[in-house]
Design goal:
Shape: elongated
Distance between the termini: 76 Å
Family: Belongs to the FHIP family.
Protein name: FHF complex subunit HOOK interacting protein 2B
Number of helices: 32
Biased composition (Low complexity): 203-216
Number of strands: 2
Organism: Cyprinus carpio carpio
InterPro entries: FHIP, FHIP_C, FHIP_KELAA_motif
Radius of gyration: 34 Å
Length: 688
Amino acid sequence: ILFFNQINAREPSINLLDSFVNHWKAITNYYIETTDESRPVKQTDIPWCLRQMLDILVYEEKQQGEETGPCMEYLLQHKLLETLCTLGKAQYPPGMSQQVMMFFSKVLSQIQKPVLHLINVYRPVQKLINLCGLPDSKTETEESQFLFAVCTRVRKDPYVLNYILEITKDSQKRCSSTSDEALEEGCSGASSPERAPSPPSPSSSAASSCSARSGAHPSSSPQTATGIIPVLMHLGKSQKSRVALRSMESLLLLVSLPQEDTGHLLAEGTPLCHLLAQRLTELYCLIPSSLSPADIHSYSGAQWRDHFTQDSPEESQSFPGSENLQGFFCFLDYCNELTKEAPRVLGVKMARAIHLQWLKGVIQPHLLQMSEAGILVHTALLSCSVRHIHSPALLEELVQFLLGSDTYCEKQQDTETHILRYRLIEHCNHISDEISITTLRLFEELLQKPSKSILTNLVLRNLEKRSYRLPGSGVTDERHGVESDVLEESEELEEDPFFTDMYEDSGFGSQEPLLSLPSVRERHNTRAHTQVADIVNSFLCLVPQEAKTSHLVQGAGYDTYVHDAHKLDRWLKFPYELNLQVTSVLSRLAVFPHPHLHEYLLDPYISLSPGARSLFSTLVRVIGELMQRIQHIHNVTDKLMMIRRQLMGLEEETLLDHVTLLKGVIVLEEFCKELAAIAFVKLPIEEQ
């Protein structure tokens, strides 16, 4: 400071320039005079001279204001940055490239005036970028700092992005066509469901196999494909966590530029979309195929930055293969953020590339294979992926991949229009209970995503015409736009033989109503109260008294479900049986506030067309069959209570006969209570 104050008191411009030139000459004279080529650069005066030159440039800018100072003019006119780039490339003296990158980084970050649009700045910056990301590089730390400084500068002055990317019309056209070909090959060339070996750490064989399935081209590697995007993607794979983190943050700075024209530039003029999808696919292929579905479902996920700040996965998520699993899902979270922050044109193209290379190119063949073990683990991975995808662009592509875009009512011959969708639906009733449960979990995860097209595609398009209902069987409900039945005593329930048998043989008809509603709101008329009470009691009375055990165990009553239904976000937490998972999916469907869905699932009084079944009529038949079977079980109530306490963790499990049947009775009792609670919560609101 004292030195600069003394200079400022005399002739600042002359002394600063003389000092700046002298430091530069000291650097160039070293190459003329030195004879020891093995002497490291840190043992010379070069680092000190570069620091002095930088300090002079920064000080000069503060003194000159808007005008360009003579030292900066000298640096530009004499192409000092070009010369430094050449010296860094030669690595003479040893370690010179690190010094050059540090100097470039500090110039870009500390000089406030825009400089990247100047030809004698952006050309050496381009050359230095192409020196980064080389095989076996010893300068990854300095490279990541330099690239971060470049991206930060571009973020500040977005118009210079085109100078950094080195994009011309010819290169843009060539890059776009190459990227499209890669995406198509990633889709068509990945038909084999065979999985590459999955070692605990990345291996060249796994990576090459993954690249083959995802349609990767050798030209996409940073060794041959120059430019800041391939270099950043390469450094993002670094074993040094800080280097990888800084590189990914740099890429995020570029992608999140809000201007649509920059998004179009990155989408069409760089291999960003292809490289991003390729990396995600590589990480997916490194997940061991021997992972347990339970471990996959229990994985809670982590933000992508956490992957570089945590030494190892948490103990609760530590299991063989957990590191590979975390690596994939952290990068998936990174893709989420990229596609959310990017301009729409870029976000959509990145998501499309991920769809073609990862979903269609790798996951689909595994889901369509014959191996039950392969189907199971990949369905579990896909289910977990659905849970962690929250980017609108990625979610849209995911829905297109799983369900397609059809919205018309399905017909029997439509099974070939979207083969994956129908195969997954078939897997819900697979010979393997594990596959059925895992696939149902997948659909349950889908139903929780904020996408109207999911519910429309899976359910609503088949209820739109209300073909399940006997025509002319009700009166029009102006509030909901659908017909509603006039409630009368003994309407159509007695027509079902199972229901009649249950009345006669099980004492079902002698039960008192389990819910008697008080005046919920004064503005509700008596008929509205009666309708709510009748619908709720219809579900509560489905299971005969001798098969009920929830009232014998504290905390298992109907009021518990009413409390949970008022939240509409907490449901059955123990999907350890297929029946329980089925009821979990149906309960989630019943919560949706759609009149057709509500009528089909929660109205026990609709008049069904011939051959049609509602949820209530199906439950009546299932419970009738169960009651006929449990009549032959001795002390059935005691055994049911024991099973219930075991499922709740209140007793240790013991061997019992008919355990599958008894568990089924308990699941159905809980399901009926849950449906009653949902109806209780929804109907008063709709009757206001």
